[in-house]
Design goal:
Elements lengths: L1 E4 L3 H6 L1 H13 L3 E3 L9 H5 L7 H11 L4 E4 L2 H10 L6 H8 L2 E3 H8 L12 E4 L3 H6 L15 H6 L6 E2 L15 H4 L1 H17 L4 E4 L2 H13 L5 E4 H5 L5
Parallel strand pairs: 1-2, 1-3, 3-4, 5-6, 5-7, 7-8
InterPro entries: Cys_rich_dom (IPR004017)
Pfam family, one: CCG
Protein name: L-lactate dehydrogenase complex protein LldE
């Protein structure tokens, strides 16, 4: 198979290590990966702010960049969910619809398509998993605690394959961090309080590292940790699944 690597703009600009780890993980799994150099923002920030009618340029370029691949994979649940639910094209609607069915967040691609059952990874640290809302409630990467159904978590499934890693238990493991895209700008005080609550939950249970599949949420938590002068780090799950620490 040939996979088109979709790297969200904020990952490209601020967290390139997450993008590199994603590439290396896919290549280790035997996947041929290509990176369309002309890709830009998927349009999610505009759509979240009520301006989806202004995203047509982003949509058309996305179709041009990714229509030819067997799958499209990205280390961002929120961006993937946006493409899955909102990608349209005035010029190539059939291609856009096809893309919506073959775009995957990294964790779901590793578990559902590649069906990864082992990893050559080692990360001897206590890790707290932040389950982002888009991934959990939109992409169903993990079960929601309010549903009376058997629990599951695709990120936990992968993290449990990493040697030396201790996954800590949280008091409220599926609570929103408060980032919410432009919500953190329009409702700053609420957003910060929610983020502080999530950080506190991880700190109280001894986390050395907070991970997740959405770097945007982790960026929000990282800002709070830095202001608190905490030594706790944030890392995208791809970086941990690709780690080789002694």
């Amino acid at each position: 198979m040939t996979v088109g690597l979709f790297i969200p703009c904020y990952v490209d600009q601020f967290y390139p290590k997450a993008a590199i780890a994603t590439l290396e993980l896919l290549e280790k799994a035997g996947v041929q990966v290509e990176f369309p150099a002309r890709q830009t923002c998927c349009g999610q920030p505009m759509a979240n702010s009520g301006f989806e009618h202004l995203t047509s340029g982003c949509n058309e370029l996305f179709v041009e960049n990714f229509a030819q691949y067997d799958y499209i994979v990205s280390p961002s649940g929120s961006c993937v969910l946006h493409v899955k639910e909102h990608l349209h094209s005035h010029k190539q609607e059939a291609q856009a619809q096809n893309i919506r069915g073959k775009v995957y967040e990294l964790v779901e691609f590793l578990t559902d398509v590649l069906k990864v059952e082992s990893l050559n990874a080692r990360f001897p640290h206590k890790v707290g998993l932040h389950q982002s809302c888009h991934g959990q409630r939109g992409l169903r990467l993990s079960q929601m605690t309010e549903r009376v159904e058997p629990p599951f978590s695709k990120p936990e499934q992968l993290l449990n394959l990493v040697q030396g890693l201790e996954l800590i238990l949280l008091s409220r493991k599926d609570e929103c961090c408060g980032f919410g895209g432009t919500f953190c700008v329009t409702e700053e005080a609420v957003s910060v309080k929610m983020g502080k609550d999530r950080v506190t939950d991880h700190l109280q249970h001894g986390a050395e590292v907070i991970t997740g599949s959405d770097m945007s949420c982790l960026m929000h938590l990282e800002g709070i940790l830095r202001r608190q002068k905490s030594n706790v780090k944030v890392m995208h799950i791809a970086e941990i699944l690709n780690a080789q620490e002694a």
